[in-house]
Amino acid sequence: MDTQLKKGVLEMCILIQLGKKDMYGYEIMKIIQDVFPEVYDGSIYTILRRIHGEGYTETYMKDVPSGGPARKYYRITDSGKKYYSRMMTEWSRMTESVKKLIDN
């Protein structure tokens, strides 16, 4: 898969997960890698840092029940929800267009 296309899809997948619930980085990474096993850990963290820098997520620290070190959790912001909504609209349009080409 083209690198730029993959980055966009991974970004959308991360926002999908964060739209469901707040998550910490490793948790997000494992879910994404279950679907895209060829994706490196660093790719996920790079995207998380970028979307955080763009204001689409915010972070907070949360203690671990087992007494380990606190984890950094990501939460989607209102701006991130709007961005995610635009991404999903564009994705739907694009996949419908490709489907039309396939079906014709």
UniProtKB/TrEMBL annotation:
Residue ranges of every copy of the Transcription regulator PadR N-terminal domain listed in the record: 14-84
Listed InterPro entries: Metal_resp_DNA-bind_regulator, Tscrpt_reg_PadR_N, WH-like_DNA-bd_sf, WH_DNA-bd_sf
Pfam families from the UniProt entry: PadR (PF03551)
Full protein name: PadR family transcriptional regulator
